[in-house]
Amino acid sequence: MAKSRNQKAKILYLMELLQEQTDEEHPLPRRSLEEKLSDIGIHTERKSLYNDIETLKNFGFDIAYRKEQPEGYYLAERDFELPELKLLVDAVQSSRFITQKKSDSLIRKIEKLTSRYEARQLQRQVVVADRIKAMNESIYYNVDKLHSAIGLDEQITFQYFEWTVSKELRLKKGGEIYQVSPWALTWDNENYYLIGYDMNAQCIKHFRVDKMLRIELSGRKRAGREAFARFDLAQYTKRTFGMFGGDEETVRIRFHNKFVGVVIDRFGKDVPLRPDGETHFIARVQVAVSEQFFGWMTGLGRDAQILSPSAVVEAYRRLLEDLGNIYKENE
C-alpha cells in the first residue's frame, strides 16, 4: 500500500530531491535519481524520469543538466539566491526583538529554501557584542496579530508591563486593559513599536510590542483616523530619541564637521545645514526634547552645542549640572 501511494507521488518526490539535494556544484545523474527514488519505494524508468523532469520544467522549475563532471541534473534557479538567504539569516540572528528560540526556528526554515549543501553556509553566527535577545516569546505572534488588526480595521485590547528591580514582570496601571486603535508598526533602536490611537487619552501614542500582553481584537472599528492622517510617522521617529516623547521644539545645534554623517543619519538628507566657519556647521532640527535627546547630545562630546531656543539650552545646562553634582556628592 505504501509503495503504491509513493508511486503516485513520484513527481513530487523527484521535485523534492532536486530542491534539497542539488545545486550547480552538486548535480545528480539520472542513475542516482533513480536509486534515490527506489530507496523510498518508487520504481522509475529512464523514459518516465525524463518525462517527469520535462513536466517540472514546463511547470516553471528551472532544471538544468550539467555535462561536465560532476554531471547530472540540478535546480538552477530558486526564489532566493544564496546571498539573499545569507542576508535574511544575518538579520534574524542579529535581531534583538526575536528570541533565540524563535531565531533558531526561523533559520532552520530559511535553510530549507536552498540545497542542503548551500544550507551549510547559512549555519553561521553573526557576532554582535553582548547581544541581548528578547525574552518575550510571544512577540513574534504579537506582531502578526497587530498586522491582522490593522488589516481588518479593528481596535485591540491588551495589558502592558514593565520590569521591576527584582527582575519580575509587573503590569502597568494595576493590570488595566488598554484599548487602542492600531495604525502602524515601526522599528526603532532594535525594538518594534505600535503606533496607535489611545481611546482613553484620545491621542496618538506608541507602545513597545514586546511589552504587550494578551492582545485581542475587539471587533470594534478603529478610531483616530483623522489624527493619524495628520501624523507623520517618518518625522515622528526622527524627532523622538529611543521612542521617548517630549515637547517638540525646533532646535539649532552647532556641530563639528566630522559629525555631518551622524546628523544626516539621524535626521535625514533634507535636514537644513549651514556652514559656520571652516570647521563647524549649524543644523536646524525638530526634536522631542527629552533626557534621551540630551543623552544623544552628550554622547557627541564637546563638539556639539545647543544654540537655541534658550529654554532648551537652560534645561540641558541644568541636567548637566545635576549630573555633575551627583558625582560630586558620591566623592
Task: List the main descriptive attributes of the protein structure presented here.
331 residues, alpha+beta, four-stranded antiparallel β-sheet, 12 strands, 41% helix, elongated
Describe this structure in words.
The chain is α+β, with helices and mostly antiparallel strands and 331 residues long. It has helices at residues 2-8, 10-21, 30-39, 46-59, 82-94, 100-111, 116-119, 139-152, 225-229, 233-239, 260-267, 291-299, 310-330; strands at residues 63-66, 72-75, 154-163, 169-171, 178-188, 191-198, 203-208, 212-221, 247-256, 273-276, 280-289, 304-308. The strands form three sheets. Strands 3, 4, 5, 6, 7 and 8 form a six-stranded antiparallel beta sheet that branches. Mean pLDDT is 86; it is low at 125-130.
Helix tally equals 13
Can you summarize the main beta sheet?
Answer: 6 strands, antiparallel
Could you list the spans in which at least 5 consecutive residues all have pLDDT below 50? 125-130
H/E topology pattern = HHHHEEHHHHEEEEEEHHEHEEHEH
Q: Outline, from the CA principal axes?
A: elongated
First and last CA, distance: 84 Å
Cα-atom Rg, whole angstroms? Answer: 28 Å
Output mean pLDDT: 86
Helix/strand structural class: alpha+beta
Number of strands: 12
The amount of beta strand, in percent, is 25-35%
Helix content: 40-55%
